[in-house]
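Q: Hand in one record:
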Amino acid sequence: MDNQNQSYFKLPLFFTFACYFIWLIVPMINFFDFANITIRYRYDNIFVYHITLGSLTYYLLVYMIALYFFQKYRIYDLSKNLVRICLLITVYTLIRYVFYILEHYILSNIIFRFFDHDYIPLCLRFLEWFDIISILIILIILFKIIPFYSSVIEFNSIVIKRIHIQIYSFFLSYISLKTILLNVYAINELFDSSITVMLLFVLLTFLGWGILYKLFNIILINCFGEFDSQVKFKKLILTLLGTIFLSALISTIIVFIILMLYMPAHLNLKNKIQFYSSYFLYSFSGINLLFSLIFSRYFIKIFYSKR
C-alpha cells in the first residue's frame, strides 16, 4: 500500500479506533461494578463478546460514515486536522454517553417495569436500532458543522482500483461474517463455556474475517469498469443492499427447500427451523457466502460499467 493509499484510509481508521477505545471506558466501569455477582464467569464472557464482536456493527457504521465524509471533503492530512478530529471525537463520545444514559433509563424504568417478559426482546431490538440511528444522526451533524482542511491528492488509476477493491472487500466480508454470528444458540453455548473458549471464538472470528476479506479481494479483482477519484458512497450502499437482499433471499429459499425435503415430516416448518436452528444458520451462512461472491461482482459491474 503506497502513501496515497495510506492517506486515504488512515484518518477514518484513526477516528473509528479512537472512538472505540474511548467508549471502552463505559463497559469497563460496568464490568467492575459487577465484580461481586455470583455468575461472574458468564459476565466475563458477555463482556468479552460485547467489546469485540458485539461492537462490530456500531463501529462498522462509524467507519462507513467517517470514510464517506473524509473522502467527500478530501480530508487526508492528520497534522492539519488533528485538533478538529479530537474535537469531533470528544463531542461524539459525550453525546453518545448522554444517549447511553437515556437508553438505560428507558430499559430499567420503563421496559423492565411495564412490559411483559415476552416483549422485552422486541424492546431491546428497538433500543439497538435507536442506538444505530442516533450514531448516524450525531455523526452527520458533527461532520456538517465542524470545518476541516481539505487536501489536494490526485490518485492514479492503479491506486483508485486498489481502494475500490479494499473498501468493498471490507464491507462485503463483514456482511458474510455477520450471518455466521446470527447463530444465537451457538453464542449462548459459548457464554456458558470458559473464558478461554470465548476468547478463542473471538480470535477465530477475526481470523475468519481476514480470510473472507482476502477471498473478496480475489473475487473483485478486475471487477470495476471505470474509476473515479472518490469511492461513490451511493454505489457502495446500493451494492451492499443488492448483494444482501438477493443472496439472503436465494439462500433462504434453498435452505427452506432442504428443510422441507430432509427433515421429519411430522414437524411443521417453524418447528423444523427451531429444532435445527444451528444447522439451518450454518447452512445458510455457507450458501449465502457463495451467492454474495457472485452478486457482489454483478452489482459492481452494473454500477461501475463503462459508459
Remarks:
- The two ends are 29 Å apart (CA to CA).
